[in-house]
Amino acid sequence: MSRLKLGILQVNHDRSVEVGDAFPDDAHRFRDLFDAQEQRFTYRVYMTIGGEVPADVEEHDAYLITGSPLSLLDDLTFLPPLYDFIRVCDAARKPLLGACFGHQAIAVALGGAVARRDWNIGIDQIEITASRPWMQPVAKSLNLYQFHHDSVTQLPADCTAYAASTKCAIAGFTKGNHIFTTQAHPEFSDPFMRCVLDYTKPHLSDAEVADAEATLARHNDGPIFADWATRFFGGTP
Predict the structure, then answer these.
(1) What is the pTM of this model?
(2) Is residue 197 very low, low, confident or very high in pLDDT (cuts 50, 70, 90)?
C-alpha cells in the first residue's frame, strides 16, 4: 500500500514541565493515532506556531492543523499566514482536517466566526447529524475528548455542520470533499487528558472540575474518528 503524505501544521509548542516535558507534542500524538491504521503515512511537521507553512500546497496529499491552548481571539502573529494557507487549500480542494484550534482557524479563514463560550472539558458525546462518505464505520454519536473555551459560532459559506452536542452547537463541519473539522481532540489519551486538566485546575471553578472529571469514565471513540480521517485523507468520494 502506498503511503499518504500528510503535512501536520503544529500550532502549539508546550514548554511546561508538567505537560510539555511529560508527553509527546501535538504532531506526535496525531502520528500515534494514525499509525494504528492499516494505511501508512509519511509525515512532515510544520512549526506553524513560528510562522512556518508549506511553500507549495502540492507538497503533500493532505494536511492537518492541530489543536492549541492559544485563542484565535488573541493577536497571534502566525494567524495571517495560516489563514492564507487554509484559503489556498480550499481553492485547490486539497484535503484539510482541523482539530480544535484547527477547526476554529478554518472557520475564521473561510469567513465564519469564533467566540468565547463556557468551558467544555472531558469526554463529550457528539451527535452525528449529517453523514459523509468517509464516515465509515457509521456511528450515530461519538464520545471524544474536549478541551476548549472558544467555539465556532458561525459557519462559513458553503459549509455544513455534521456534529453537535449540548455543550457545542457546531462540533464539526465539512465543505465539499476537501474540508473536514472537529472541535474535539481525537488524539488525546486518558493520561494526557487528566494531566492537562490538573494543570488547568487553578483557572477553573470547583464545579467545572467536577463536571469534567465525571465524564472521564466514558469510553473514547478517537480510533473511530481516526478511521474517518484516514478515509478522508485518501480522497474517499
Answers:
(1) 0.96
(2) very high
Q: Which domains does the chain have, with CATH numbers?
A: 4-233 (3.40.50.880)
For residue 9, CA distances in Å to 62, 71, 198 come to: 11, 16, 27
Beta pairing partners, 146: 122
In which order are the strands placed within the sheet that holds 160-165?
41-46, 4-9, 62-65, 96-99, 179-182, 168-175, 160-165, 113-128, 141-154
pLDDT at 17: 59
CB 186 within 8 A of CB 28: no
Nearest to 100 by CA among 138, 72, 80, 135: 72
> Cβ neighbours of residue 105 under 8 Å, at least 6 residues apart?
11, 65, 72, 79, 82, 83, 86, 98
